Amino acid sequence: MTYKKEFIENVRNSSDIVEIISDYVELKQSGQNLIGRCPFHNDKTPSFTITPEKQMFYCFGCKVGGNVYNFIMEIENLSFPEAVEYLADKAGIPLPQSSFDSTEIARQRKIRNIIYEIQKDAANYFYCNLIKKESGKHVLDYLFSRGLSYKIIKKFGLGYSAPNWDATKKHLLIKGYNEKMIELAGLIIKGKHNNYYDRFRSHTICYRK
């Protein structure tokens, strides 16, 4: 789906980059710019900069930069048309009726929401495997030996996937999801005989929200 240049510019001009990014990054004033820790890499010192006058951002650490569309595409893992729709919705700008199929967009949005919920439930499952299950104790001990605390483990969404072939799949099926959606979420793989098995087994998992 495509949108006219005028509509794209209208949405961009109505989406203040500082307001949008402040939902994801804690910002501090630095002269005429704002700085913060980059959300795209493990940024120990603030290397993420916003120039409000130009409505642009740039990270001196990972070299990611651009306008508000580039940021939303990167942080939300969206295509360009999806980023336009996302920002238009936040700005309260209706989409041109001739440029999209509202039924299809609603369907795609529903799928994305389900995938997000599946990945969130899987992340909680992996976290519990690491913290509470005997099968994850050796991994937890290793992380502690590397200087990681419970606080850091929780902050970065670390977890552990069991060595079983279908433990994650069974857990998510019990939660009410179907195999097709779990596959779309990237957590299971279809085998040669059309049977599904876990993509991650005996892995340390880092869930990025």
Would you give an account of this structure?
With 209 residues, the chain is α+β, with helices and mostly antiparallel strands. It folds into two domains: 5-100, Zinc finger, CHC2-typedomain (DNA Primase, Chain A); 103-206, DNA primase, catalytic core, N-terminal domain (DNA primase DNAg catalytic core, N-terminal domain). 45% of the residues lie in helices and 14% in strands. It is built from nine helices and nine strands. The protein has a five-stranded antiparallel β-sheet, with helices on one face. A two-stranded antiparallel sheet has the order 6-9. Strands 7-8 form a two-stranded antiparallel sheet. α3 (68-76) packs across α4 (80-91). The longest helix is centred in the middle third of the chain and has 31 residues, at 102-132. The two termini are 27 Å apart. The model has no long low-confidence stretch (mean pLDDT 91).
Task: Produce the secondary structure layout.
Blueprint: H1 5-13, H2 17-21, E1 28-30, E2 33-36, E3 48-51, E4 56-59, E5 65-66, H3 68-76, H4 80-91, H5 102-132, H6 137-145, H7 150-155, E6 158-160, H8 167-174, H9 179-184, E7 188-190, E8 196-198, E9 204-206
